[in-house]
Design a protein that fits this description.
about 325 residues, alpha/beta, Rossmann fold, 2 domains, five-stranded parallel beta sheet, about 15% strand
Length: about 325
């Protein structure tokens, strides 16, 4: 008698091009991309998030990628004041400064750094969150964040599948123009935008899924089913946070493991497992003020990192190794 599992599972074909040790990933999109990015960094893998911060809709992602690729300077028209700081309508609220001038300089610095990272990336992960956009009436532009400005300054609407597809095609074209060999991975965030309404959230996600289906080619442009893994495999409120909208840490980990088995080489998965153990060590803080014992602990952590670097032929300039050594130096001081 065949055993029943009482659940459906997602079968994902392994990628032909694998993320190898020393490769890098550039991610942009919703906060779900940030969570996957964090898990990769904990595994001593080179994963970089767009410095503009969280962005949800295809048209804002298109705008930001185009700015990065063309290195277009930020403009005063996009700068507004929020809670005593200056922020940009075209970036997340975490990107702020005390003056307009310093914010413009920061945004341009971020653009230059993101351009370098995008040029060097072997993989680009784009996480789409919603098809709803806010169009700033005076600028006649879709913004990445309303920055708590008066709602009367914006028109809110859901873009069509054709509009979403056009944005994704432009994103692909821009990325390929500076990084022709990049493996581009689209995914739809499983985070539920309940403030939109249940029906509206479903329509929004459906728009994104259909637009992605229009642009993937199964080769250098692919789709990873984050949305389906949570909605159709886990399919249980146990795997959501208390807001019933965001996946729980266990759900994010489950999606990440699927992502790793799909895209990571065997050697990369081995590195990530050992890297996570070291990251756990680095988060340890002493409960008692015994300086000598803590210094001994830090020495053991440094030695373990050196063994890892030697085992995988990683130099001290390899970003995760360099960051770990820098953290150890700061902890010792």
């Amino acid at each position: 008698m065949e055993q029943q599992t009482f659940r459906t599972t997602i079968s994902i074909k392994p990628a032909q091009v694998k993320f190898d040790v020393g490769d890098s990933l550039f991610s942009i999109g919703s906060c779900f991309a940030e969570e996957l990015n964090t898990l990769m960094n904990n595994g001593f893998l080179q994963a970089y998030q767009s410095p503009y911060g969280t962005v949800y809709n295809p048209q804002s992602i298109e705008f930001q990628i185009h700015r990065i690729v063309t290195q277009t300077p930020a403009t005063e028209a996009e700068i507004v004041e929020r809670d005593g700081f200056f922020v940009s309508l075209m970036a997340h609220g975490s990107v702020m400064a005390e003056t307009k001038e310093s914010l413009l300089a920061k945004l341009d610095q971020y653009t230059q750094e993101a351009n370098r990272q995008l040029r060097e990336a072997h993989f680009v992960l784009i996480t789409l969150g919603t098809a709803y956009v806010y169009n700033n009436i005076s600028m006649n532009m879709v913004v990445a964040n309303c920055q708590k400005q008066n709602a009367k300054l914006f028109n809110r609407y859901r873009i069509s599948q054709a509009e979403a597809t056009a944005s994704l095609r432009n994103v692909i074209g821009d990325i390929k123009s500076i990084n022709p060999s990049a493996q581009i991975i689209f995914t739809v965030s499983p985070i539920r935008h309940l403030a939109d309404g249940m029906v509206e959230n479903t329509l929004s996600k459906s728009t994104l899924l259909l637009s992605v289906a229009d642009v993937v080619d199964g080769e250098s442009v692919q789709y990873f089913p984050s949305y389906e893994i949570v909605m159709d495999d886990l399919r249980d409120y146990r795997f959501y946070a208390s807001d019933m909208a965001h996946p729980s840490p266990e759900a994010v980990r489950y999606v990440y493991e699927h992502f790793a088995h799909t895209y990571f080489s065997d050697k990369t998965r081995d590195l990530a497992r050992e890297g996570e153990k070291i990251s756990t060590m680095l988060r340890h803080r002493p409960l008692t003020p015994n300086a000598s014992k803590y210094a001994e602990f830090l020495d053991k952590a440094r030695a373990r990192i050196k063994v890892l670097a030697k085992q995988y032929s990683l130099s001290d300039s390899y970003k995760p190794i360099a960051n770990a050594f820098c953290l150890l130096d700061n902890l010792r001081s």
